[in-house]
Amino acid sequence: MLKEDVFPEAYTAIETDYETERNKPMPSYNHSLLQLKLGAVLINKYSDKYQFHSELDLELPNAQRPTVPDICIYPKKQTDWVNDILRVKESPITTIEILSPMQNIEEVKNKIFNNYFPAGVKSAWLVIPSIQTISIYTPDGQISTFASGTIHDVTNGISVELKEVFY
Fold this sequence. Notes:
The protein is an alpha+beta fold. The chain has helices spanning 3-6, 17-22, 29-46, 105-116, 162-165; strands spanning 50-54, 71-75, 94-98, 123-128, 133-137, 143-146, 150-153, 158-161.
């Protein structure tokens, strides 16, 4: 076995245009899969009451630059297919962030408490793929973490079986 096989050169992180524009790391394989699966579960169960958006560019009043949650939840409304919106100024009722391998939890929690909640977001979900958990944060500092069973967000009435997301 060669020395190079045991001690590969240090990984150097390079920020891509994707990361610069969205102010977050590029999604990984598991991140991408979870974003789609969770979105599908939510749409199948709650599309009569809510609209779900992925990678929506939010221009929040207290954020230094636009933020892009993985999923945003808004009350259902009529879609204007003719006049699209590039940057949304209306705060969602819930944001969902899926932790990427290159992110740390504190970074995401800071985004939740410093950007989302001051803008009027009622709850924020933090999905951690590696340990298959979802934590729901509320502006009053309450945190509910789910590792099995049914997660329930009291702010919007949404319930999801974890096995529907992490199967």
